[in-house]
Amino acid sequence: MAARHLSIFGWLLKCRMRDEDDSDVIQTMLSPTDARYVEKQRKHPVALITRIRQVVALEAKRGNLNPGSHRSLEANLLELNRIYGMCERLRGSPVPPMYSRHTSRLLMFWLFSLPLSLNSTSISAFVNVLLVMVAGFVTLGLDEISMQLEQPFRLMPMQQLAGSVMLDVADAFVERPPKLDGEEDIEGEESGANLKAPKYWTD
């Protein structure tokens, strides 16, 4: 169960940062009970972390996790929570619109006054026009890039990152390493060569 929750963390984070609907991912990957719980929460990625922490605590209580492994898993979950918090701060703290508008107006004023300044020099009209075109192309391009960087999650390849996270989880939980020489078989454990990742993890 923890593997399913962890595998869709990247997808839910992508949907959260881009204001997209994540109900299909939740209902496909999680059980009905877990899906209802996650969808009722305001922040779906945090709900996943909470559910994974609940599973880890239960396994530790049953004695299936030693104290060192328990602390390591808790530290990793705290790191996921910290990463989500950083993403939320980036998303919730864009550059004020007035700053962007003022910068654009100042840039346009400078571009309109540039030909007049160059006209007072001894350069030809052709060079004047050429310099203004180059300056306008560079400065307007930088202004457009700065406006896009206000919302970095629209530019980042989050689709590929989320898919990579899911495949990494499949590699860690589904594809078990082969037994060492002399290692005894554990009752109920299948050989790593006989396990196959679910179809939705390999598409």
Automatic annotation (TrEMBL):
Region of interest called Disordered, as start-end residue ranges on this chain: 179-203
InterPro entries in the record: YneE/VCCN1/2-like
Localization of this protein: Cell membrane
GO MF annotation, one: chloride channel activity
One term under GO cellular component: plasma membrane
Primary location: membrane
Entry membrane topology: Multi-pass membrane protein
UniProt entry tagged with the keyword Ubl conjugation: no
Keyword annotations: Cell membrane, Ion transport, Membrane, Transmembrane, Transmembrane helix, Transport
The protein's name: Uncharacterized protein
